[in-house]
Amino acid sequence: MIDLLGEDEIKKTFVEKYNANDLAKFLKLAKDFIIRRGLWREFGEKKLDLRAEIQKFSSVYTQVTKWTKSPLQVLSDPDSTKISEYSPYPKEFQALIQNKIESFRGREFVFKQIQQFIDRNSNGYFTIVGDAGMGKSTIAAKFIWDHKFPCYFNIRSEGRNKPELFLESIRQQLINRYWLQNAKDDNLQTLLQKVSDNLLDDERLVIVVDALDEVEQEDRDKNLLNLPTTLPNKVYFLLTRRPYIADNKRLYTQGVPEEELDLRNPEYGDLSRQDIENYIWFFIQENPKFKDSLRKWIEERQIAAFTFVEQVAEKSENNFMYLYHLLPGIAQGEYNDLSLEKFPKGLKEYYQTHWRRMGMDTEPKEKMVIILFILVEISTPIPCEMMAKITNQDEYEVEKVLDQWVEYLKDQKVDKKTCYSIYHTSFLDFLKGKRDLKKTRKLFDEVNQKIAEYFIREMA
């Protein structure tokens, strides 16, 4: 790619189009040049994304135009550290995407079906449906990572699940990726048409939207997130959501191809089971943090590794979130007193077993339960200081509680403060279910009273 950008014709054209703020035109001219030189097939074989390479180069060019080094010299210099690394992923979701794919395994049957849908149709909506913990968000993250498409993750616990926030994020991603002009106030339909008009012949735009079921939207007569009823050519949406009833689908279209892949479908059972087993094998054989401890646990009980994988996979009910919690728990000694046969079955039973083993239904743990319920009721990330004021506890005591539940919580910086929220919707739903139990209903009432009193004090 550097050799290509070093060609006099390409350099001259790039500078001209860069100064004219017309890199979309340069992209097409660059492709024509590559084809004339007989190099396009080589680009395909090396899986080079011409648009992404030009974006990367233009980012460097923008930063070094006032330097003595040329952009090409900067790109060629492995010791250059003054350039901030270009990323095709939106900053707001980059850490989430990287975290999701860290231990990713399998799901090839899903990606194959997505690609077949794109190949068969000139546009369309493809939806992945599945229960909590079946890996929908991770599939979305892996697809984004591999293809560098625009994306949006709806996250209820962070308040990042409203149509206006979705449009703002996608608009900026499309402007940046496709060099759209005069688009800062465009609606989604207009943005998609502009992109479609500027795509190369072999390009496709796929916008990935995760967790439609977490969207908050008052207008029920419109599509969730105001997704368009029609789509331009070469434009697709990859959506994920939990199972729904027909009245809650809220994806009205006019002549747009639609397809769903339901991960619960028995026809995918064996394929999902194989992916689950591969995931467990990865933890035993390759995971640098947990493999030694897991092997030790297995060997001490004189269990064959194959038997362990098979029985844990069966217990998981093809749920990756179950394994996400259980396998590290085994490695960290949390299940030393349980035999393999006594492991909880399924994600919901796992949560209840962990809750019971932590003694959360006993009076000494009541303060800990209250802190978790505060996170449920406020539903947006809040700092430790705020939880301490609500509960009239010392911050140190609150921090100790948060540390004990660290794998179930997400921390993030908000206004330079570390704030906490529930990590996964499935655990949030588990905690919400405690409202219906007589024993914990009173605690929820107490929590809401404490929250109300806190806000009254703060407003005084």
TrEMBL record:
Keywords: Repeat
Alphabetized InterPro entries for the sequence: NNH, NPHP3-like_N, P-loop_NTPase
NACHT N-terminal helical domain ranges (all copies): 3-71
Domain spans labelled Nephrocystin 3-like N-terminal: 113-240
Alphabetized PANTHER family for the sequence: AMELOGENIN, NACHT DOMAIN-CONTAINING PROTEIN
Protein name as it appears in the record: NACHT domain-containing protein
Organism: Brasilonema sennae CENA114
